[in-house]
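FORM 7B: Structural annotation worksheet

SECTION A. Query
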Amino acid sequence: MADDQDIRAVPARGGDQIATAHFVAGAAFLVVGGALATLALMALRFDGMFLFTYGRLEPMANLSLMIGFGVISLLGGVYYTLPRLTGARLWAPELAGVGLVATTILVVAGLAAIGLGLGDGRSPLALPWWLDLPMLGALSVPFAVTAGSLRRRRENRSYVSVWYLVGGVAWLPLLYLVYFLGDLPFVASVTVAYANVLFGAGFVNMFLVTVGTGLAYFSVVRELDAPLASRQLAQVGFWSLGIAAGWWGAAQLIFGPGPTWLAGVAAALGLAFPIGALVNAANVSLTLEGSWARLEEKPGVSSALTGLYLCVGAALLAGLAGFRSVTAVVSLTGFWEALEFVFLAGVGPLLVAGSAFSAVPRINGRRLYTPARARSFIRLTLVGSIGVLVTMGGAGLLTGYAWIGGSNSAGFVDAGEGWAQSSTGGPEALWLIAIGFALVALLGQLAYASAVLGTITRGEATTQEVLVPVGAPLDEEPEA
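SECTION B. Predicted structure
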């Protein structure tokens, strides 16, 4: 892995600027998604208070956080990292720019379509088929750019981050293709349900956490100038995330009309997710040996490490919820929405910031604006996401036990008229508290966007990272 003084190749003109554009666009969508997620919780608790119902606000929030923020921001990290790991120019940065514009337009169009009631109602995105198809094409662009860059790589040995980045951009269009198949008119409704949960869980495992972890391995080692603790642990983490991809999603449908073997397989293979998350967090922690005191001055490293730790906790809950005894309680409750929130609004932003807080200052020649704001983002995001997980997840558990207890005691029915009795009392109070924690998370998202945009526009000027080709004449103007 080359440093600032020993770089083996220069990216194509505008390559780093494309990465910056991705980070900026992603930061804007993070704020939009966080606001929509908070409104969705309010609409669920105070029915009829807002113009849009929860059924529209939730997919709008998911679209903003998953595609608008998660995909776009992580691709910014990919386009920044690839040239520095492969020693090759970023292939076709113009194509990467087209992909950014297309994805942005499609997300905005999707928000409008869902808001106007034109969505198909499918979880998690609810996009109509005529937007799903071009979205599939836009999400295939990163793989083309990455593959083109790798074909010209000069480094003989690949650093572990390359596996994670390549795996993530290759799996993303495949996941969306499976999701898109649910739009076909001849597909059975059961198949559509499995396609929905496979995409939701697969997006978290195979793209969000996978690419975010790969970027964390790069930024931590580079920021601290420390060797990676274990290449073998990184391999275990990579394949664990890939194997675990859709199984904790399928666990949500254990009591549905699916195959009988689903319960056992989902419970067993779903444990690969927490194993992969734990291995990666441990590997980064071991890499930090002797450097823990420097975390205060490295907010990017702190953010990445916090995201990995938060991922371990959420992954453990997702894995345990795959067991039939637990699923009997949490199925069809707010427990799964709580996990979705913590991954999209907690783990995702923290892992993205781990790359952004390192990359944006380097490629723009400005110091991070400001480290204190970056640390506020970490604290607010951590408190807000964990708070929503505890309160919303707790409300889901209470609701699940109320359904079981009400059904067994004949106190009230758990379906049809009278089912809402199980949502009163304790769960309602917890939902109200969850809204407050969502607002805390939104403040953290605003702090992240402010730090990224402030660095570009108001950060103190400092040394800029410029990639220079090997053997370039001294009078040759380097490409930034």
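SECTION C. Observations
The mean pLDDT is 87. The chain has one domain: 15-458.

SECTION D. Sign-off
Analyst initials: ____
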